[in-house]
Specification:
By secondary structure, the protein is α/β, with parallel strands linked by helices. It contains 17 helices and 9 strands. The chain has 3 domains: 194 residues, 3-Layer(aba) Sandwich (Rossmann fold); 77 residues, Helicase, Ruva Protein, domain 3, CATH 1.10.8.60; 90 residues, Arc Repressor Mutant, subunit A.
C-alpha cells in the first residue's frame, strides 16, 4: 500500500525548500538573512528534516543566547553527543588526534573544551564529520546575534573565528553549512572588517509569504482550531488584511488571527462564522494595545542594542517621519526634517542609515519613497514612538 503523501501547501514553503535542497546538494553553503518574525527558524527545521530524509547527517544548533566561543563549541558538542553512534566515532577521532591529553572518552566530548585550543577543537570536529560516509550539514540558527554579542567583547577574536570557519568550509567539502540571522549582518561585517569571511556562502534572502501562502496559513490556523475563535474570511476581508499588514509575516498573521472575533453568523452545516474587513480592523487595533507591546519588542531592542550611540536617535527620528503616512516619504524630506532636530544628518549619513533600516526589515524603498515594510509595525511606531 502506498503511503499517503502530505500535501505541499503554499505556506509550507515548498519552492524555497526545493531551492535550498538543490543548492546544498550542489555543494553550496547557505547564509539565509531575513528580518525577524518571518519564519527562518521554522524553515531551518524543515531543511533539517528534508536533508535528513535525503540521507544527510544534520547537526542543528541555536546560538541566539550564546555569548562565548566556548559556549558555541559546547552547543555543537552537545548536539553531536545526542547522536550516540556519531558521538563514539567523533570521540575516537579526538582521542587519536590528541593522545597527549589522554582524553577520557567516557566523560564525553564537552569535557575536552578548554583543554584544546578552540580553533584546533572546531577543526577536529569538522574533520571528523567530514570523514563520515554521508554528507553532513551543520545548521546554525541566529549566527548574526552571536556575532553581534562577540564583536562587542572581542572584535579581533570574532573576525578570526569567522575566517577560521570559512577556511573549514573550503577545506572540508563533505561538510556544508546553513546559517541564519535576523539582523543586517553585512552592515556589522563592513563596520568591523570581516565581510570577506562571508564570501563563501550563497546568500538566500527569505521573503515574507505570498498572498496565496498567507491565505493558506490563516485557513489552516482556523480549520485546525489554533485560534481563539475559528473563522472563515468574508469577501474582501483577506484583501483588506493583506493591504493593511503589507508585509505578510507568519508571526503577525497568526497574532492577528488570534485576535479576530468574527461577527458573521454561523451558516448551515459545518461552516465557520465569517470575519469581515471590520473584524480584521478591530483585530489590528487590538494588536496596538499595551498588552501586546511585547510582540514588537524585538524591533525596539534591535536599535538600542545593535547600533552605535550616535546613530540611535537618528534612526528613531527617521522611523518617526516614515510612520506618518503609509507611503512614507522621499529622502529630501527626511533630510530637511532631521536637519531641524537634534538628529541632524548629512546626505551620505542619511543614505547609510536608510539602507541599514532596509537591511533590517523596517523600511523599503518604492518609487523613490522610503516607507515601512510592515503596515502593522508602522501603526505601532506611530502609536508609541512618533516624535
Amino acid at each position: 500500500m502506498n503511503q499517503r503523501v502530505a500535501p505541499r501547501l503554499p505556506h509550507h514553503r515548498p519552492e524555497e525548500r526545493d531551492a535550498l535542497k538543490a543548492r546544498l546538494e550542489g555543494g553550496a553553503s547557505i547564509l539565509m538573512l531575513a528580518p525577524r518574525r518571518i519564519g527562518k527558524t521554522w524553515l531551518l527545521k524543515q531543511i533539517d528534516i528534508d536533508m535528513t530524509k535525503a540521507g544527510w547527517l544534520c547537526i542543528r544548533i541555536d546560538v541566539e543566547s550564546t555569548r562565548t566561543e566556548d559556549e558555541f563549541l559546547r552547543a555543537l558538542c552537545e548536539e553531536i553527543e545526542r547522536k550516540q553512534d556519531l558521538k563514539k566515532r567523533v570521540l575516537s577521532h579526538f582521542s587519536q588526534r590528541f593522545k597527549q591529553l589522554m582524553l577520557d572518552t567516557s566523560s564525553g566530548l564537552s569535557q575536552a573544551i578548554g583543554k584544546i585550543d578552540p580553533r584546533s577543537f572546531v577543526e577536529t570536529l569538522v574533520e571528523s564529520l567530514n570523514a563520515e560516509k554521508h554528507k553532513t550539514l551543520i545548521l546554525i540558527d541566529e549566527i548574526a546575534l552571536f556575532i553581534l554579542e562577540r564583536v562587542r567583547e572581542d572584535p579581533d577574536g570574532t573576525k578570526s573565528l569567522l575566517y577560521h570557519l570559512r577556511k573549514l568550509q573550503q577545506a572540508y567539502e563533505n561538510v556544508s553549512w546553513f546559517l541564519t540571522g535576523s539582523v543586517g549582518l553585512d552592515v556589522v561585517a563592513r563596520r568591523h572588517g570581516f565581510l570577506g569571511a562571508l564570501l563563501g556562502f550563497d546568500t538566500f534572502p527569505l521573503e515574507p509569504f505570498s498572498e496565496a501562502a498567507a491565505l493558506s496559513y490563516v485557513e489552516e490556523l482556523c480549520t485546525t482550531k489554533q485560534v481563539v475563535q475559528p473563522f472563515q474570511l468574508a469577501e474582501g476581508a483577506f484583501a483588506y488584511l493583506a493591504e493593511q499588514l503589507g508585509w505578510l509575516s507568519p508571526f503577525y498573521l497568526r497574532q492577528i488571527a488570534l485576535n479576530v472575533r468574527p461577527g458573521g453568523k454561523l451558516g448551515p452545516g459545518p461552516t465557520l462564522p465569517e470575519a469581515s474587513s471590520a473584524d480584521i480592523e478591530i483585530a489590528l487595533q487590538t494588536m496596538l494595545q499595551p498588552v501586546h507591546r511585547t510582540h514588537f519588542a524585538a524591533w525596539e531592542e534591535h536599535i538600542i542594542k545593535n547600533f552605535e550611540p550616535a546613530d540611535k536617535d537618528k534612526l528613531k527620528a527617521i522611523l518617526s517621519v516614515a510612520s506618518e503616512t503609509p507611503d512614507g516619504d522621499i529622502e529630501a524630506t527626511f533630510l530637511a526634517r532631521l536637519q531641524n532636530s537634534d538628529a541632524a544628518v548629512t546626505v551620505q549619513n542619511l543614505k547609510e542609515l536608510l539602507i541599514s533600516l532596509a537591511n533590517d526589515g523596517y523600511l523599503v524603498k518604492t518609487n523613490n519613497r522610503w516607507k515601512f515594510l510592515s503596515g502593522l509595525l508602522r501603526r505601532y511606531w506611530r502609536e508609541y514612538h512618533a516624535l
